[in-house]
Write a structure and sequence with these properties.
heterotrimer; A alpha+beta (about 300); B mainly alpha (about 475); C alpha+beta (about 325); A: alpha+beta; four-stranded antiparallel beta sheet; 17 strands; C: about 325 residues; alpha+beta; five-stranded mixed beta sheet; two-stranded antiparallel sheet; 9 helices; 15 strands
Chain lengths: ~300, ~475, ~325
């Protein structure tokens, strides 16, 4: 009884305890600074397609919360009607993608360096994010000497009307894999030298490729301050031809679907069920016979 | 059954026709209905709020419902024991007990099916079992064998009852009218002709043969629901035999309890005699020993090795949280019954009744111990979950539903007894004739022996005609 | 968010209705005549093309044409039927490597996973265990996902094909099929499955969605849920939520057929990684053949103690 009383007291006290806890966590949440962040990212793929990604999220402490359905307007170099790139709204992941319209051709061609500006519609004088990018190209080439394969990547930037080598550019060079690039050499990343070049000796032998042994080489510059994101790809026949074994999925096993029940199990189950239920159905007929016999006896 | 010799067929019939509920019968039925209604209300709450009303959580994801299911499947095995095995071995003393055993089997298997539906998270998708059934799953095997066993049990209850339905049809003053119409519908065609007897006797023998492997299957397959997993305490090649032996014991215990109750309240002392108790007592001793043997086998061997995953489970059972229940199930459910029933006095009706209850209650807890403690000892430690996930004790809704299902099974039996003769009238009359005939023609000493001499099924058939 | 991802031959290249991101793109570029290189590869990412072309400005100031579908941050994927979801992605065999030497029980994986899948509060699809194999061995943190076994005991016992093995190796759940018998939970030796004991809590627009076996959303009352290896993310060319949420790169995800795994920042050749760091699988003796490999907690980035504050006191030091 004493124990029970004690327990009841604890139960009585619990709500207070929880209230205390809640107010404490609430207070903590208030003290954490939250900050809205707008980020612009520039992408250049295979020296041709280029686009901008606008990211919008709320930074609460260390946590990032994507902001959905927020409108922005992007401009090239200056906020003016003729410099207008796109109007966008962020999606569920707080992101939006925009391309440069053809109307900007003259402005784009005029300068090697461009600034992308993001503003909130209606508040055009207030820049919420900007990004400066130098036009750049990335080339990939392969070589094979004495049985050693190598990949050469060159990055060039547009300066003073010509394409000059870009040095000190960090990049990944390797084989395109699910969601990432598997480095072709021993280093995770490589940096261009004064000629804007990276040469990577391929140390990955016998990587599985597609049915013909093709693999995709890729060089990728990520979030470079000057050049943005660059990607170039090349298809080579360096892989081991691999055909996928779908046999395991087609098997009749205990974990297969009901359409692939093992034959021995089907045989056993059906033979037992048919024997037993066959007999039972026979017995039902016997019962019907008894019934008929009864009726004829009464006549 | 010498005390039957002085009875005429009319006397037997008068003694054995179903009687209306007395005051006590009404109270009993009323209590059962109330328990069922509470269970139904609890199930309504479960349907509304989800299985969250139970105390099952991700670790103990099977609780009292499943142990109750196993209990029902276990007790239903008795139908095959008494009816089929005794019938086939020509053991005549069990004749008055056959129908008791069969109705226990039918009501238990009915509620086994109901309780398994109660355990489902989405009972409205029950039909998926037919639409998308996968023969690889032991659950589908269980659905098939339980369905089959139910069907055979119903036939084995019904066919031997045909002659009794004729007798009931001949009775006057049967009220209410729907019962009388029921007799006519179900048994009106039975005239008791030679051909009818011939067919029905053959059908009974076929059923008796068939029900034995099916009964072993329901038990074995139910044990496989556990034994096909990797979990300590379930991962055993011995599980089928262990379950079957346990089922025989609890089933026989259940029959003993029913025998006592029916004998007492329907004044059947002339039909269910002390000799029946004595013999059932001996059978119980054998079955308790058998189950004890399988228990020792099941616990001693892993305990000898004490593999790491088994260790926590076994120590919890032997000396931990579940020790009181575990030793209760072993001592009260097996050891004490053996000791009591080994004495001649212990096989008298009243001590047998008490022992029967001990066996049944012990067996109920035993099923709980088979299901729950294992789930509390997973391979990876129980971490990173709310505190309530690490323990299990059934909620009131679970108790209400489990008790409601037990009450429901008893209710089926109670209504059955109200409508149909619980002791086979026709067979009792026939047997009495035989006994009388033998008394005239043979020496009295032989009679006792005769009951235990196995004769061929053909012999049985010949006698029935 | 990067639009490029793995490319591979033979995944539906003869499908005229569905084209692929770069093929479609390069083909149009070639037609406009501004591409210096014609690559025949096809990325694994499928895109539902709108058929409408939009003119855009290229890096060189050229004008190229792109399908309107690519204007979205994540192009719309073709709608999958239940039978597509049950078959899985052809040619893939997903694998995960969990590096125990990098885990300090931050539980970022867990919260990201729970958040994205609307897992019921208190339950989680990823659990982080405080493990200690024997009395004198060192404790370590062990995150567990679903092991996506190649001999899945849970799939074996399912009576209605509600949980199934796909050709890409993923063990998935169809919550519209599940009857809630919980046999799979009893059968799983890794205790990875959770049950929706009550109506799951989630915003109305989520609960109204049609259930997908790939997103495992929305979870439904009375059915079983578990880690699904996020095939929806893979189809978008992204990594599972736990992989991208982990700041220490504990989780590495990839395709066994490509022999590569990545945590986003680093990419390893799977076979080398497993060989060099002695990778192993949990409970190998049970014969379940998991798709999740562990790297032993050697040369640790953080001492075990740094993770203690995130674990309930009674959950520490388990043998």
């Amino acid at each position: 009884m004493k124990m029970l009383m004690k327990n009841n007291y604890i139960i009585l006290l619990l709500p207070f305890f929880f209230m205390l806890l809640n107010s404490k966590t609430a207070a903590q949440e208030d003290s954490v600074k939250s900050e809205e962040v707008v980020k612009l990212k520039y992408y250049n793929e295979n020296n041709s397609m280029q686009y901008l990604v606008t990211e919008n999220y709320l930074k609460i402490g260390k946590k990032l919360e994507p902001l959905n359905n927020k409108p922005f307007q992007l401009y090239l170099d200056s906020v003016a009607a003729e410099n207008f790139i796109a109007k966008l709204t962020t999606d569920k992941s707080g992101k939006a993608k925009s391309f440069l319209p053809t109307t900007l051709k003259t402005i784009w061609d005029a300068s090697p360096v461009h600034k992308f500006i993001a503003v909130v519609p209606g508040k055009e004088d207030e820049t919420v994010a900007e990004l400066e990018i130098t036009k750049a190209k990335i080339q990939i080439d392969t070589a094979s000497a004495d049985g050693v394969r190598s990949i050469t990547v060159q990055v060039t930037k547009y300066e003073n009307g010509e394409w000059l080598p870009a040095n000190e550019v960090e990049m990944k060079v390797g084989i395109q894999r699910l969601g990432s690039i598997l480095s072709a050499g021993d280093e995770p990343t490589y940096t261009t030298d004064s000629s804007g070049t990276v040469t990577v000796e391929v140390t990955r032998d016998s990587l599985p490729g597609d049915a013909k042994g093709n693999i995709i080489l890729a060089a990728k510059v990520e979030d470079n301050d000057m050049l943005g994101n660059l990607l170039v790809e090349k298809n080579v026949g360096w892989g081991v031809p691999t055909t996928y074994d779908t046999n395991f999925f087609e098997q009749r096993t205990l974990w297969s679907t009901r359409f692939k029940t093992p034959l021995w199990l089907l045989f056993m189950a059906y033979s037992i069920v048919f024997t037993v239920w066959g007999t039972l159905i026979y017995l039902i007929f016997q019962l019907i016979k008894i019934k008929k016999l009864g009726k004829s006896a009464s006549v | 059954m010498e005390n039957l010799t002085s009875l005429s067929s009319q006397q037997i019939t008068r003694d054995l026709v179903p009687q209306k509920f007395g005051r006590r019968g009404m109270i009993w039925t009323g209590i059962l209905i109330i328990i069922c209604l509470i269970g139904i209300y609890a199930y309504y709450r479960q349907l509304k709020n989800g299985l969250v009303v139970t105390n099952m959580r991700d670790y103990v994801s099977w609780g009292i419902y499943i142990s109750n299911f196993v209990f029902f499947v276990a007790i239903s095995l008795v139908g095959s024991l008494i009816t089929a095995i005794f019938r086939l071995s020509n053991i005549h003393w069990s004749t008055p007990l056959t129908r008791i055993a069969e109705i226990i089997a039918v009501s238990a298997i009915t509620f086994a099916s109901i309780i398994i539906i109660v355990d489902m998270g989405r009972p409205e998708r029950l039909l998926n079992i037919l639409l998308h059934g996968r023969l690889q799953s032991p659950i589908i095997w269980d659905v098939i064998v339980i369905g089959t066993y139910f069907f055979i049990s119903v036939l084995l209850l019904y066919i031997p009852m045909l002659p009794d339905l004729k007798i009931m049809n001949e009775q006057k003053n049967i009220t209410p009218g729907w019962i009388k119409r029921g007799y006519k519908f179900w048994g009106g065609f039975w005239k008791g002709t030679k051909e009818q007897f011939k067919i029905s006797n053959r059908a009974i023998i076929i059923l008796s043969i068939m029900i034995i492997p099916v009964a072993f299957s329901i038990h074995t397959v139910t044990s496989w629901l556990f034994a096909t997993t990797y979990r300590p305490g379930w991962d055993s090649t011995n599980f089928g035999a262990y379950f079957v032996s346990g089922a025989f014991l609890v089933g026989a215990g259940g029959v003993v309890v029913a025998m006592y109750v029916f004998r007492r309240y329907y004044h059947l002392e002339k039909y269910i005699t002390e000799k029946h108790f004595d013999r059932m007592g001996k059978a119980l001793v054998l079955l308790a020993f058998l189950y004890l043997y399988f228990n020792i086998n099941e616990y001693l061997v892993p305990a000898f090795k004490m593999k790491k995953p088994e260790e926590a489970h076994l120590t919890q059972l032997f000396a931990g949280e579940f020790a009181p229940l575990f030793w209760f199930a072993i001592v009260v459910g097996m050891v004490i019954p053996v000791i009591v029933l080994l004495t001649k006095k212990g096989r008298k009706p009243l001590p047998m009744f008490v022992v029967g209850i001990m066996v049944v209650v012990g067996a109920w807890f035993k099923r709980y111990l088979i299901v729950t403690p294992t789930l509390l000892h997973p391979f990876l430690p129980m971490q990173d979950v709310p505190q309530s996930y690490k323990h299990y004790f059934p909620s009131w809704e679970e108790w209400a539903i489990a008790m409601g299902s037990l009450a429901g099974a008893l209710l089926i039996i109670t209504f059955f007894v109200r409508i149909f003769p619980i002791i086979p009238i026709h067979e009792t009359i026939e047997e009495q004739k035989e006994v009388t005939d033998e008394k005239v023609t043979s020496q009295p000493q032989l009679k006792e022996k005769e009951n235990f001499i196995p004769v061929t099924t053909g012999g049985l058939l010949a006698k029935r005609q | 968010m990067s639009c490029n991802c793995n490319k591979e031959e033979g995944c539906g290249s003869n499908n005229s209705r569905r084209e692929f991101l770069l093929t479609g793109l390069l083909a149009t570029m070639a037609a406009v005549g501004c591409s210096d290189e014609k690559t025949p590869f096809t990325p694994q990412e499928e895109v539902a093309l709108s058929g409408q072309k939009v003119k855009l400005l290229s890096v060189d100031g050229e004008i190229i044409e792109v399908d309107k579908a690519f204007l979205k941050p994540i192009p719309d994927l073709p709608t999958l039927t239940n039978s597509d979801e049950r078959k899985g992605i052809p040619g893939k065999k997903f694998v995960m490597v969990i590096d125990l030497s990098r885990c300090k029980n931050l539980k970022k994986c867990q919260s990201a996973c729970n958040h994205m899948h609307f897992v019921h509060p208190g339950q989680s699809w990823i659990k982080i265990y405080s493990m200690q194999d024997s009395e004198h061995s060192a404790p370590y943190w062990q995150p567990t996902t679903c092991m996506h076994c190649d001999e899945p005991p849970c799939v074996k016992v399912c009576p209605v094909d509600a949980t199934f093995k796909r050709q890409d190796g993923i063990v998935s759940i169809d919550s519209d099929r599940c009857i809630g018998c919980r046999f799979c939970m009893a059968a799983c030796p890794y205790s990875t499955r959770v049950f929706n004991w009550e109506e799951p809590v989630m915003p109305e627009e989520v609960s109204k969605q049609h259930y997908s076996c790939e997103t495992s959303v929305p979870q439904k009352k009375g059915t079983v849920g578990k880690c699904d290896f996020c095939p929806d993310m893979v189809r978008k060319g992204e990594l599972p939520h736990c992989v991208s949420a982990c700041p220490n790169g504990v989780f590495m995800f990839g395709d066994m057929n490509e022999d590569s795994v990545t945590n986003g920042a680093e990419t390893f050749r799977f076979s080398d990684l497993i060989k060099d760091k002695s990778g192993y699988r949990l409970m190998e003796d049970l014969g379940t053949k998991p798709s999740v490999y562990y790297l032993p907690p050697v040369n640790r980035s953080f001492p075990y103690e740094t993770g203690i504050e995130n674990q309930a006191a009674e959950d520490l030091h388990h043998h």
